[in-house]
Amino acid sequence: xxxxxxxxxxxxxxxxxxxxxxxxxxxxxxxxxxxxxxxxxxxxxxxxxxxxxxxxxxxxxxxxxxxxxxxxxxxxxxxxxxxxxxxxxxxxxxxxxxxxxxxxxxxxxxxxxxxxxxxxxxxxxxxxxxxxxxxxxxxxxxxxxxxxxxxxxxxxxxxxxxxxxxxxxxxxxxxxxxxxxxxxxxxxxxxxxxxxxxxxxxxxxxxxxxxxxxxxxxxxxxxxxxxxxxxxxxxxxxxxxxxxxxxxxxxxxxxxxxxxxxxxxxxxxxxxxxxxx
Length: 277
Prior knowledge:
Pseudouridine synthase; ten-stranded mixed β-sheet
């Protein structure tokens, strides 16, 4: 039992809850590929069984979000989950459009204090909830696209954001507001795409049952973005490298016509890297 289920997480449900639900349905270990805060909704890919061994190969995948930012108001968590603090002005659409290019490409971003980053063996949000300030280091994140979609309220605007893993949209709301000389927070967030997983093919968690769960299990080999390689040299499957004349890189490895796992070609040799069957 291995593969992926593309969950459409609803607002108010934690990513951990979704993972635990799938564990009960499939009876094997499961894990999500990039958490979504309870406030957020949308695409949450969950690995089932041995597919959880593959998360490191998806670290560079891009994600697409639809977000709404409010201006002239903020909070300690930079979303509406903590007490609102009013102050600052509401910018015009033209002003927002003008500063968005500053946030494209590789940028430095300080994570929010209310985040799951580990600090001294504890989560940052644990310190924040106790009223303690913990300095967090800025990290490099990648923003590929940042588009203003329009004004959706007196102080609220809608955006589409395409970014790399590890980007905090709440921090982006804070930083955009600061660039405009005001305060801001993230009012809502929906992830519409995570790598190859899209909202069009996502299934609501409540729609899964013990009877139909396997119908939504996507085979692991359908998810991996690597070329196919068939090899029946048994030495390879006993931990020994075998000669290989093809290009260096990762391959989806097939043994006897069946998907086996991953193999890596390097300097004329082929080695198994990850067994998944």
